[in-house]
Structures are given as structure tokens and as C-alpha cells.
Amino acid sequence: MSAALIIHRAGPQVTVQDLGRSGTLGLGLSRGGAMDRLAIYEGAALMGQDPSCAVLEMAGMGVVVVATCDTRIALTGAEMTVTLDGAPLRWNASHTLPKGARLDIGGVRAGNYGYFHIAGGIQTQPMMGSRSAHLAGGVGACVSAGDHLPILADKGEEAGLGLSPSERCSGGTLRVVAGPQTAVFQAEMLERFEQTAFARDPRSNRMGVKLTYDGDRFGAADGRSIVSEVVVPGDIQITGDGTPYILTAESQTTGGYPRIGTVIPSDMPKAVQTPAGANLRFQFIDLEAALEVEARDAAARQSLKSQLKRLVRDPHDIRDLLSYQLISGVVSGSEEEPK
Amino acid sequence: MIQSMHFPDIQTLGTDGLLVRFGDSLSEPANRAALAFGAALERDLPEGVEEIATSLVSVFVRFDVRHLRHADLRSDLAKRLKAQDWFAAEMPTGRRLITIPTVYGGTYGPQLAKAAEMAGLSEDAAIKDLSEADLRITAVGFAPGQPYLGFLPDHWDIPRNAELAPVPTGAVVAAVRQIVLFSVDSPTGWNHVGQTAFRAFQPDHPDPFRLRPGDEIRFTSVTPEEYEALKSAPDGGATWGKVE
């Protein structure tokens, strides 16, 4: 029998994800893939594997799983309650998952999307070059109880490593570059847009982050006559009733609503992980500055592996073999960018 | 020249994309230019470009900013734009003509009567127009595989409805001299005039996106009985030929 990850229970929005698809945008299927792409790179660093490995994305609520072989896992993104055979585990860390042990990932503590990584990646059949479910596009389905997801026998790399993730689950400022329709908004409205505090509407999903705000409506003077064109992740679309949406992984591929600008990719993990109740603000920056931020962000992703720290047992909690504390200890190596 | 002095133009879209626009409203020449320019780019991709996506009157180019500078791609695209009059480009040869059986009106096209009235036609005349029109796919997008088609005769310049109504996959909807063949169940303000059993996106098919920009489509009229019989046929009974 080949190795499998058996799903005993799953939250309502658990899907297999990777970094998504390229080449289908012009055919109506957006990139898809993980909402918090940084969490994919963090997991890859913790596991010592390629960021193209498929993972489970868990929106709000996790899974109860058992593996049919000894393997390793890592947990990244929004922190969720988690136990292994009843003993708590550290988030943002890698762990061994012995054959038959029950891993129970519960509700989210902060943020929106948690990620479960497994040695070698989940081995479901790729569709159009990716294992990502794209529910809005009708590709794949949610993971549910009773599913057996194929996995690989573990080659037995190191587990018990942790990292300190960049903070992105409590709101803050998102940097935005101007786009083709920024100029259809009046200068005073752009200024007010930067001064306004926004909040995540609970009706947000993998297609977009819906935002609420107090004050006068935002809108373009001539917004209704815009001819439909390609939209990209991060675009901030203002619908006819003045509601801003930050378009995300499973957005439609084209849109005719005016877009005030585009959140830069480095700030998208914060855009998708900010929970309802925390504030988001927008700040326009010029393209040159944005490209510098992106270059630094790419370098930071590459150096994640050098920031790993070994987890050690807490002497005050010695009976609990699976509860660890971070100490310094460096693992060298760099994480390759995917092709 | 009916094009504005401002087009084509090149805009940045996001941090790693450029958008080449051939107009700020839909027109046959601007659509023709976008299709031709997008196809030419696909045939001769500038190094560092990762994805091309053509929509109604624009071409989006996504590239790797680590290996290709904005200014360099912009000047490369500008040079290609100057190389010929894209608004007068020939449509590519070897395009496909796909005939899709369509049942019009009644419960299959509940807004046919209203649409026909707005177009100043009887229902029968409307069905004749819709089923005999030479329609070209002007863009595929919004939802996977979903084609936008143009252009119906001028009297079909009818508005979209303010109220959205749900339509099923395979619905044929009309407004503003265009037709959309829905690839998903969706609410829409377009007028639902007919129904096909055609699925424009079939994730498990070796060729999942069944239609491409530039393809020509004819929505030939069939009876409800013929339609019901075609529901289980591959591609809903559609037949594939070549544009003469």
C-alpha cells in the first residue's frame, strides 16, 4: 500500500495548495495557489524542501489527520491550536509525525490561513501544472473527512526546527503602486483613501478581501465606462457601491470596475492574514521603491533557512517530549526560488 | 483612423506587469489589434516574460523583474508596437468555426422576448439574427474558458439589466452587441436568451479550455427535444470546423 495522509476531520475550507498556475490567465483561470505565499516558503525552509511542494491550506479551522508511515510535518501561517496525541506542538516549526499518531489542528488563534506541510509534499494529481484546488474556477474540491491524500515515504531529513515569522496577523499598512486606472480617481480621493482605516469584512474569501470603512464612499467619476481588462492579485477594485476589494488568489481574471492601485506582493501576506477587527491602511509608493522592497523580500525568502533555530525540550516540562523552546543554532543553506 | 491619438499605450500593472492598451472602449479594430499583438508576442516571447494574457482591447505581459527591467521591456514592446499598424492586422489563418446547438426562448431563454423587444424584433426574427450571426471570440476570461463574442448587428446594442439574475453553465446571454457563453453558474445582468449543453471549461479534458480568442462560433437553433437529446453528447453536440 502506498503512503497516505488520512483525513479524519476537516474544517469547512481546507484545500490542497501550492504556488498556483502560470499560463492560464488569458484563458480565464487566475493563478490561484496559497493565499499567504510567504507561509509556503517558510514551510519549505523548515522542511528543507522545494517551495513547489503541495500543502494543506486551512482557513480558520484545521484538520485531524493520521499518516500511514513515519514522516515529518511543518506548520506555518496563521497560528492554530494543535496537538499530537494530546500534547501541544509549536507553530512555525517542523515536527516528526509518527505512523498512526493523531495530529489535531483546531481553530485559528490569530490571522486567517494556516498551512500544513508534509515531507515531499502532498502527491495529489496535478491539474494544468499545479495541485492547487481553484474552487471559484471549478478545479478540485475541498479536503474532507475520509479522504486519503497520497504522500511520499519520508527521506528522513531533520525535524524539530523553528523560525520566527514576520508579523502579519494584526493589521498595519499595505504599500500600493499606482495602476492604469489610478488616475480616474480624483487626487483628493486618493489622499482620503490613504488616510482611511479599513477593516476586513467576514465575507472575504479566496477571491478577494472585502473591506469596510467609515466615511464618504470611494468611487471614480467615470468608473462605469471602463472597458474590461486583466486584473492581477493585489489590485484594489472599487465596486459600484464604493466597496473596496483586494483581489486575491482565485479572483476573476478580468474586471471592469475601476482599480485604485495594486498592493505590492510583499505586503499580500499581511493583506490576507489580517483578521476582522484589526485595521488596514494603504500607502502609495512609487514603482522604483516597490521594486526595491520586492528585491529585499525575495532575498529574505532565500535566507529563511539560515534563520532556523533548533527546538529544545523545556526542562520545566520534561515529561512532555513534544513541547519545545527555541534556542539559537544555525542551519546553513539557502532556499532556491522556484522556476 | 478611428483610434484616439492616445493608443496604443503602455501602462504598468502591479510591480511585475505591463499592460498594452489599444483603446479605452471596445471596438472591432482595437480587439483585432489586441488579438494580433498578443499572438505575435506569444510567437516571439521577449526573454524574461512569464505570461501573456489578451483581453478585449489590451494585452497584459507579466515578467520576472529580477531578470528584466521595466524600462527595457517597455522599450521592447514600444518597438514591436511601431513595427506595423496593429489595428489593420489580418486575423490569423486556420481559425476554428465551432457550431454549438442552442435552444432559444421559453424556459431555456427567459429573457429572449424582452431582448427581442429592445432590439425592435419579433422573437422569431431575433432567433434568426442570433443563430445566423458570424460571431468571433473577442476575449476569453472572467471565468475559466468563458468566451465573449462580437459583434451582433447595431440594433442589438441593448443595455444590461440593473438587476442580476442567475444563469446556468452553458447559458447564452446578449447585450451591447455582444454575446457571452457562460462557463459557470453565475448571476448576470446580461439577457438570458438561450441555452446550450456546451461546457467551455472542462478541467478533466485533455484540452480543458475548449475555446480560444479568434475562434468563430455559430449558435445554431435547435428544438427543446433536440437540445435534451444532446445534453449527454460530447461538447453538447458542438461540431468543429475551420473558418473558410
What's a quick, concise take on this entry?
In chain A, the strands form five sheets. Chain A has a seven-stranded mixed barrel with strand order 13-20-17-18-15-14-21. A six-stranded antiparallel β-sheet of chain A has the order 7-6-9-4-1-11, with no helix packed on it. Chain A is of the alpha+beta class and 339 residues long. Chain A has four helices and 23 strands.
Explain what you see.
- The complex is a heterodimer of chains A (339) and B (244).
- Chain A is an alpha+beta fold and 339 residues long.
- The longest helix of chain A is centred in the last third of the chain and has 16 residues.
- Helix content of chain A is 12%, strand content 30%.
- The C terminus of chain A is likely disordered.
- Chain A is globular, with a radius of gyration of 21 Å.
- Chain A is built from 4 helices and 23 strands.
- Chain B is α+β, with helices and mostly antiparallel strands.
- Helix content of chain B is 22%, strand content 26%.
- In chain B, β3 and β4 form a beta hairpin.
- The mean pLDDT of chain B is 94.
- Classes of the chains: A alpha+beta (339), B alpha+beta (244).
What layout of secondary structure does this protein have?
The complex is a heterodimer of chains A (339) and B (244).
Chain A: E1 4-10, E2 14-17, H1 37-47, E3 55-59, E4 63-67, E5 71-77, E6 80-84, E7 87-88, E8 93-97, E9 103-108, E10 113-118, E11 148-150, E12 161-162, E13 172-177, H2 187-195, E14 198-200, E15 208-212, E16 229-230, E17 235-238, E18 244-247, E19 254-255, E20 259-263, H3 268-273, E21 279-284, H4 287-302, E22 309-313, E23 324-326
Chain B: E1 9-12, E2 17-21, H1 28-43, E3 49-54, E4 58-63, H2 70-82, E5 96-99, E6 103-104, H3 112-118, H4 123-132, E7 135-140, E8 147-150, E9 165-167, E10 171-175, E11 178-181, E12 186-188, E13 191-195, E14 216-218, H5 224-230, E15 239-242
Parallel strand pairs in B: 5-14
Antiparallel strand pairs in B: 1-2, 2-4, 3-4, 5-15, 6-13, 7-8, 7-14, 8-11, 9-12, 10-11, 10-13
Helix pairs in contact in B: 3-4
